[in-house]
Structures are given as C-alpha cells and as structure tokens.
Write a structure and sequence with these properties.
Low-confidence stretches: 4-20
Order of helices and strands: HEEEEEEEE
Number of helices: 1
Number of strands: 8
Mean pLDDT: 78
Shape: elongated
Radius of gyration: 32 Å
Distance between the termini: 70 Å
Strand content: over 45%
Number of domains: 1
C-alpha cells in the first residue's frame, strides 16, 4: 500500500503547475458602451386637423408604434402610407394617363435622450384633391383642362417630448382657401 501512495504522490508532483485564475479575461464584464440596446416601444399618435377659421372641417388621426433605442448608433422607425392613386391625363399626341398618389405618408424615428425625453423625428407628406365646390355649391377653383388640383402639405420635424406629452406646433395655411392645417403629435411609452 505504501508503494501505491508513493507512486500517486510522485505522479502528482510531476504535473506542471498551472496558476488558477478566479475569472478568465474572456468572461470580463462588458464595458458600458458595449451593453445591449434596450428598446422601448413608443405609441405615436399624429392628428391632422383642418380648420376654416374657427370651424373644424376634418380630423384625420394616425397611430403606430416605434421602438426607441438608447444607443445613438441604432435607430429604428415606422412608416405609414395610405391613400389613393388618381389618374391624370398628360397632353400630347399619345394622350397618356399617369397616376398621382394622394393621401398621407408619415415616417417616424425615435431616439431616447439621456434626460428621459425622446427625440421624435417625423416627416409628414399629406396631399388631397382640391375641392371644386364649397358646401354652399359655389365654385372654388377653376380646374385647368378638367384636370384635378392637388393640395400638398409637407414638413420635416424633430420634437423633444416626454412620455405622455403632446406637441401642436405645426400650422400651415392653404394659399387658395385660407384653411389652416394643424398637426398634433402625442407619444406614450408602452410598459
């Protein structure tokens, strides 16, 4: 038995000595800038409201969800395209018809700011057929060659909003009718 213990001890002493480490370098904690991106779903509501003086003529709401990230390099977004294609004849010897998109286009991107607010970047593009007659039946605009007139409203905004906050800072006046278009934006973080 002594010989067996002697050989076991001799075998153990002949093993190379390897220093033991508490933690390997590959298992170090990630640096703060390397941490995973945390996404926060933000519900965005955009409302286009048209007024004739103080009288509200129409209100068109749109709602969608955009993931907001906390890293400046990652930027998610959402887009809405809704409307109709209107045929328009092109003068010429062939009398060709082309189609024009009429409706609403919204592009949105959201970035979380360090102070708890959100940087909301929006591109609005809204078009509509120009009304030919008023509600009283009077002719508003002469249509050239029977072709439809299309109103256009475009804006590109960057808003700094808190959760639950509404911004109503976009106002535009139609040069032919005098109607005003107001855009309000509300954001709500989804829990």
């Amino acid at each position: 038995m002594r010989k067996l213990v002697y050989f076991c001890l001799l075998g153990t002493l002949s093993l190379p000595l390897v220093p033991l480490r508490a933690q390997d370098k590959t298992q170090e904690k990630p640096k703060p800038e390397e941490r995973a991106t945390v996404l926060i779903p933000i519900k965005v509501q955009v409302v286009f409201t048209e007024f004739d003086g103080d009288k509200k003529i129409s209100s068109m709401p749109y709602a969608f969800t955009v993931p907001a990230s906390d890293k400046s390099g990652v930027n998610y977004g959402a887009s809405i395209r809704t409307g109709v294609r209107i045929p328009v004849e092109i003068d010429g010897k062939d009398q060709k018809t082309t189609y024009v998109d009429v409706g609403s286009n919204i592009d949105c991107r959201i970035q979380r700011a360090e102070d708890g607010r959100f940087l909301v970047s929006l591109i609005f593009d809204r078009s509509a057929l120009y009304p030919n007659k008023s509600s009283e039946g009077e002719r508003l605009v002469n249509e050239p060659n029977g072709q439809p007139l299309i109103r256009q409203f475009r804006t590109n905004e960057s808003l700094l909003l808190r959760d639950g906050q509404t911004s109503e800072n976009t106002l535009s006046t139609d040069p032919l009718s005098g109607h005003t278009m107001r855009v309000s934006v509300t954001i709500n973080a989804q829990k």
